[in-house]
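Progress against Task 2.4 (sequence-to-structure conversion) is shown through the following example record, which the project officer requested during the mid-term review.
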Amino acid sequence: MFAGTMAGANLNELLSVAIEAAYLGGRRTLAYFNTGVPVERKSDATPVTCADRECEQLIRQTITRYYPSHSLVGEEGGSAAGDPEYKWIIDPIDGTKTFIHGVPLYGVLIGVEVRGVPSVGVAYMPALDEMVAAAKGQGCRWNGRPARVSSLATLADAAVMSSSIVSCYNRSEAFAKIASRTLLQRTWGDCYGYLLVATGRADVMIDPAVKVWDCAALMPVIEEAGGRFTNWAGESTIYGADAVATNGLLHKQVIDLLR
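Structure tokens generated for the chain above:
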């Protein structure tokens, strides 16, 4: 098995397609960014726009052009049956509320599971033109440069990100404990908080509620940058109900407070 290959799949090729798809889909969202695009409500009351739908459609078209037999699942388009050994998991706009408010910290997420293992992850921030991409065993790159988590080992000096501090406080008293023990707490996170961890600009990212399309791209990104990605119980999974990413050195301290 040569470098970049896993179970017969060339991870570098999968990564290349994921980067292309995320870029094309992300650039499409910019046609609607800060334009007052109409907002609809899904059955769960969460917002969606034509930018979400068009981005995912373009991503799906790009993937199926290269891998027509692979299975797909997306936040907006649902599941498309295919080879279960290769599953593409898509979040066309991670941070739709952020997008609607004209804040540039939304992202396009594409993850690939190979035989059940999260193996490829791409996160593209269209409004910032930042691309963070990783494949298992290949490291993580930020706009083409190697990305690495911070080397901070002291929780008291840590910068903590969250998509919603209010949601964290409402979930449990755990976030209050973490906030009281850390140097800096910031929100407007969405996927960007994880990318800040992966690139060493923040140390902890906490999400009180997630779906698989929120996580599939981010686990490979965080792990290949040298960090850890788990649920609040400390389990390495993209199928948890919550998520936390750290630089690795702080993970046990954070999990102990979250439990």
